[in-house]
Write a structure and sequence with these properties.
about 0% strand, single chain, 9 helices, mainly alpha
């Protein structure tokens, strides 16, 4: 299939490719008749745009070319799945391309990947229930910390809020390192039953 696309598109991706008369009609010909000329016409028009999107999303030149080829291989295989009522042909093709890029990045990394430029994101503003829940958690933690003796509150604050190493806490408070560790351990033991359901 790669050779079919490239053979009908001399020189690979052609930025100046002409507008297809009707992308939906071309895609229908691919789905119905397995028309390679129709696929080549779609490739000639959308290929450079898909490649430009891949480059914007951080793919190198060679990888962008490979992902364009994979995109149109998927178009060839899945043309019968396109539903006009769900969006334009361009949207469908770019969605395939975006998903291929995300899959490629996931294969590279053990961490989940989100394509921040293209994937729909929830609003950064927390909704009402999330805000209420966060406020309740903060109130519970604050109330639990207040049950600690002042010297334990101090080492917990320095360790977790100020992210201070134990040795520095000992210097700051003026107590032995062993005392810092002992106070933190006692604080954990007291806080655990009050807050363990939040973990």
């Amino acid at each position: 299939m790669y050779s079919v696309v490239m053979a009908d598109s001399p020189g690979g991706l052609r930025p100046g490719a002409s507008e297809p008369t009707d992308p939906a009609a071309l895609l229908a010909r691919v789905a119905r008749d397995r028309d390679r000329g129709a696929l080549a016409a779609l490739f000639g028009h959308f290929g450079p745009r898909v490649k430009a999107m891949m480059l914007r999303l951080g793919a190198g030149e060679a990888l962008a070319e490979d992902l364009v080829q994979e995109t149109f291989l998927s178009v060839w295989r899945k043309a019968h799945l396109y539903a006009p009522e769900r969006g334009a042909v361009s949207t469908w093709i770019f969605t395939i391309a975006r998903n291929l890029r995300i899959d490629q990045l996931r294969r590279q990394s053990s961490r989940p990947y989100e394509d921040l430029e293209k994937v729909g994101l929830e609003s950064e503003e927390p909704d009402g229930s999330a805000t209420t829940e966060r406020r309740q958690v903060i109130q519970r933690v604050t109330a639990a910390l207040r049950t600690l003796p002042p010297e334990q509150q101090e080492v917990v604050r320095l360790s977790f809020l100020d992210d201070m190493p134990h040795a520095r806490i000992a210097e700051t408070v003026g107590i032995p390192l062993g005392t810092v560790k002992s106070r933190l351990r006692l604080a954990y033991e007291r806080l655990r039953p009050m807050l363990e359901d939040l973990q």
